[in-house]
C-alpha cells in the first residue's frame, strides 16, 4: 500500500501534509492522467464520473 501512495505522490496525483502525528493526503484534482491517450483528461473529470455513478445507487 505504501508504495502505491509513494508512486501517486511522485507522479503528483496527491501530496502529504503532516499534522502532528497524523498524515493528511490531499488529492491534486487539477492534474491530468499519465497515459498519452488520456493525457488531456483532468483527474477531476475522472472523479466526477465515479461520483455521479455512486449517486445513482
The N- to C-terminal Cα distance equals 28 Å
Rounded mean pLDDT score: 86
Count the E strands. Answer: 2
Instruction: Give the structural class.
Output: alpha+beta
Q: Summarize the main sheet.
A: 2 strands, antiparallel
Compressed to H and E, one letter per element, the order equals: HEEH
Overall shape: globular
Query: Poorly predicted ranges (pLDDT <50, ≥5 residues)?
Result: none
Q: Percentage of helical residues?
A: 25-40%
Our count of helices gives 2
What fraction strand?
Answer: 15-25%
Over all CA atoms, what is the radius of gyration?
14 Å
> What topology, given as strand order, has the largest sheet?
1-2
Structure description:
The protein is an alpha+beta fold and 57 residues long. The protein has a two-stranded antiparallel ribbon. The model has no long low-confidence stretch (mean pLDDT 86). Helix content is 39%, strand content 21%. It has helices at 2-10, 43-55, and strands spanning 14-19, 22-27.
Amino acid at each position: 500500500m505504501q508504495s502505491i501512495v509513494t508512486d501517486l505522490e511522485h507522479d503528483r496525483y496527491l501530496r502529504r501534509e503532516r499534522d502532528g502525528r497524523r498524515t493528511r493526503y490531499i488529492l491534486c484534482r487539477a492534474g491530468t492522467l499519465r497515459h498519452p491517450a488520456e493525457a488531456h483528461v483532468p483527474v477531476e473529470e475522472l472523479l466526477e464520473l465515479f461520483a455521479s455513478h455512486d449517486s445513482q445507487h
